[in-house]
Amino acid sequence: MPPVIIIEDDRFLRVVEVVLDPKAGAERRAAYTDFFAHDEPDFDGWCAKLRLRVPKLYPAEVRMVEDQDALRKHLADANALIVESLSVGADEIAAAPRLKAVQKYGVDLRRIDGAACAAKNVTVLTLRRRANIACAELALTLMLMLSRRVNELQGRISAEALAAFGHAYKPFDRRHTPNSNWGRVPGLKILYGTTVGIIGLGEIGREFAIRAASFGMRILYTQRQQAPAAIEQQFHATYRPMADLLAESDWVVPFVPSVPATQNLIGHAEFLRMRPGARLINISRANVVDRAALLEALRSGRLGGFALDPLYDTPGSDDDELLKFPHVIMTPHIAAQPRFNALDDLEEMIVGLSREFTP
Question: Positive or negative CA dihedral for 129, 130, 135, 140?
Fold first, then answer.
């Protein structure tokens, strides 16, 4: 009898169904073959190799569930659960007599009752997601680009190019001085010693905090509930209410989900609370930032820089007004890339889960 795996219906976790369940629909298989093709041109071959590594899991019966109620309906048959945001508490464990393992698609176990799992000999597995690391890396990359004006200066290596940029070449007196920044470009900054305000100290926010701390930045964060002291200490983060975080931060970086509560989270009032010249990096969904308020903050000069991935519209438009500002960077939804981040995450997760089915 094949193992029964209940999976929260996340668009990436659907790949587990494609890999492990022979009954997965042809349309879904074709869609993921196309989705991964530019990084993994042989997705079918990748799936086949992975199946050979997990003979205790393939073939499996995979059931995708959208919410907590749907999860509970399938617990009686479940041999394994894979969840991202759904809860697995004592009631769920009690209703799943065949359960061997609970796989968290991430590392935050706040919604999984570890004691209840341990009491029933159910293994709890975690995964440090490469996609989250990639998002944190891009946020930091965009900050570095804005702080050194790399997006504006790239390729401007001749006197003529710098003059066209507004900086006529005037040599230093090299008999006495060094020659760094011979283009005399003002406004260059470093991250060290500046304050970054993280909105949402979740899994991506924590990956970002690790990297910001290594640059010597002061880290503030805000979210609906203050994190435990141990988490604050681990990530060198200090809690602030939203208004205070905006007022104190040189950089503001939201890491929040795209839900109704976060739409236009940063609007006119929030831009007015930010210190003049502060910069905003948004790799959450674009609608976290009110577009009209953003344009107003850029036009007035109050916002010192902005970076966005993904865009307000997909594909974007070459005449987007945001592109007219020299201190704006926009990229076409590349934060979690390459695709191998997801493929390697899922391979690690499936192989790890298969060990729980080995006698």
Answer: positive
